[in-house]
């Protein structure tokens, strides 16, 4: 153990020492905010560095290109979402309760203001920046994995009729994605909590009526 008396005190105004992981997290968070507010193409590295409170030299030491920041920002968001989806799925033993928990968790992600803005960004810039769509597609594949796990589990138990797991998982996600599509097109405003609960219940009813065995 290091004797604190041997550590020289910081001078006045000297910033606290951050770990490399903390610095990376600050930069990724700043990049995510900037991409959503300004767009990927118009966001400069100097802006991200300034918002993160680091020098551009530090940023380039940790990330070699803006595209790396995009991938990291996407992965951080989707990684956290995947954890919550997987936990929601596993928390309930009853198939209906488990499905509603999974759909509700996904709705909280996909219908959030951040997710809607991100989808708009991808739609607007995907042709100019193919990496944007590629990163999104790779990241959301993990979310589909949570739905595939639910389908596989309940097909094996005999609760669901046998079928293509991947296709069924995409259909499950699609019930929530339809609400997002309507928001994106201006066909409706953001769902209230009550509307979101009703949407989830209706989605679960439709899915189970069509896929439940017997």
UniProtKB/TrEMBL annotation:
Origin superkingdom: Bacteria
DNA-binding span(s): 44-63
One GO molecular-function entry: DNA-binding transcription factor activity
Keyword DNA-binding: yes
Xref: Gene3D superfamilies: Tetracycline Repressor, domain 2
InterPro entries hit by this protein: Homeodomain-like_sf (IPR009057), HTH-type_TetR-like_transc_reg (IPR050109), HTH_TetR (IPR001647), Tet_transcr_reg_TetR-rel_C_sf (IPR036271), TetR_C_Proteobacteria (IPR039536)
One Pfam family, short name: TetR_C_7
Domain HTH tetR-type span(s) in chain numbering: 21-81
Keyword vocabulary terms for this entry: DNA-binding
Name used for this protein in its record: HTH tetR-type domain-containing protein
Organism: Pleomorphomonas carboxyditropha
